[in-house]
């Protein structure tokens, strides 16, 4: 597991054109830092979204986040920008890296780490915590782009595609799961969060409807 210290060397957003200015100014977003950001973000979201926090096991959300990108130690981060252009996500390779990382650990630790990683990557329809962890992961990426990215207007089409694939779909699924369990107020909190993010992208020049997830 000592290889995990290498997570500070694996950088996110490499080759993403609307991050070029930030990179030229020395900005870096290592995977290890991203995981830490996800922890801080979930802590803040719990405070801002109390009904959502009440609906889930918060500790399990942290458990799912802590290892979710460790598999990128193998082949690096396949960016959302690359995936939106059809590049394979490399998830199968990440699974093999995870199995290698935990080799030698006591079975109970190894099995739980691999289970958490699998549940994060392929959450079931009734796994609220995994769906939340995936949304937190996406929100973290959104914030990097909104706070550090270049002018998004020239990349409006692909940015909208990324939001659809990586954010809107996750938020919509989580809202559906929450409402199926009668957590309507929690669903409204997620909807408000998603609409705010889409509004911010709209302001930054991305042609996307902020009311995509509005109640019908």
From TrEMBL:
<feature type="domain" description="HD">
    <location>
        <begin position="47"/>
        <end position="144"/>
    </location>
</feature>
<dbReference type="InterPro" id="IPR006674">
    <property type="entry name" value="HD_domain"/>
</dbReference>
<dbReference type="Pfam" id="PF13023">
    <property type="entry name" value="HD_3"/>
</dbReference>
<protein>
    <recommendedName>
        <fullName>HD domain-containing protein</fullName>
    </recommendedName>
</protein>
């Amino acid at each position: 597991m000592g290889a995990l210290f290498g997570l500070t060397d694996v950088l996110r957003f490499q080759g993403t054109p609307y991050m070029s200015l930030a990179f030229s100014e020395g900005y870096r977003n290592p995977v290890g830092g991203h995981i830490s950001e996800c922890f801080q973000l979930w802590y803040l979201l719990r405070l801002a979204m109390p009904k959502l926090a009440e609906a889930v096991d918060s500790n399990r959300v942290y458990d799912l986040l802590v290892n979710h990108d460790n598999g990128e130690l193998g082949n690096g981060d396949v960016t959302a920008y690359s995936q939106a252009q059809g590049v394979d996500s490399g998830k199968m390779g990440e699974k093999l890296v995870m199995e290698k990382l935990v080799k030698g650990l006591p079975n109970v630790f190894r099995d739980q780490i691999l289970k958490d990683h699998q549940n994060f990557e392929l959450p079931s329809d009734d796994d609220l915590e995994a769906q939340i962890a995936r949304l937190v992961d996406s929100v973290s990426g959104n914030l990097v782009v909104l706070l550090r990215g270049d002018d998004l207007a020239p990349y409006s089409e692909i940015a909208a595609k990324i939001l659809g694939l990586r954010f809107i779909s996750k938020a919509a699924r989580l809202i559906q799961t929450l409402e199926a369990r009668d957590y309507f107020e929690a669903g409204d909190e997620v909807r408000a969060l998603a609409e705010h993010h889409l509004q911010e992208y709209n302001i930054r020049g991305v042609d996307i409807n902020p009311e995509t997830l509005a109640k019908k």
